[in-house]
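Inverse folding, one chain.
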């Protein structure tokens, strides 16, 4: 008979739908939200790139320096990087078993993603304001 009394989860945990790490549901929702956000952002980014094919250097710089192009690029890049960070975090948590190795891999993942994000923001802002 499964009346729930043999569960190791607390009643509050059952209500909040949290697993042992207390963040599984939030992590899953963030992955879904970034996936959904990336659909129109990818379409916008691809459209932007396709409109720039065959243009000379100055035309491309002028187009990328506009506010809409910069915003689309920043949103696309930062959402994609956040999605990548979450995905790699899931893989690391699931498949790296040593506690020290897991902590090191999660730190490397975070620093890599934040570094790439800062580099992308710098590049887009540099193109926009110069």
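Residues assigned per position:
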């Amino acid at each position: 008979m499964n009346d729930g009394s043999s569960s190791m989860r607390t009643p509050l945990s059952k209500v909040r739908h949290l697993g042992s790490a207390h963040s599984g549901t939030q992590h899953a929702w963030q992955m879904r939200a970034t996936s959904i956000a990336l659909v129109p952002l990818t379409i916008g980014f691809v459209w932007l790139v396709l409109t720039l094919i065959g243009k000379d250097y100055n035309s491309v710089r002028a187009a990328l320096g506009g506010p809409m192009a910069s915003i689309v690029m920043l949103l696309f890049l930062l959402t994609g990087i956040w999605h990548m960070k979450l995905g790699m975090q899931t893989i690391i948590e699931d498949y790296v078993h040593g506690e020290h190795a897991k902590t090191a891999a999660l730190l490397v993942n975070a620093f890599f993603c934040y570094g790439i994000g800062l580099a992308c923001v710098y590049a887009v802002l540099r193109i926009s304001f110069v």
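The domain at 23-129 is CATH 1.20.1300.10 (3 helical TM bundles of succinate and fumarate reductases). The longest helix spans residues 99-129.
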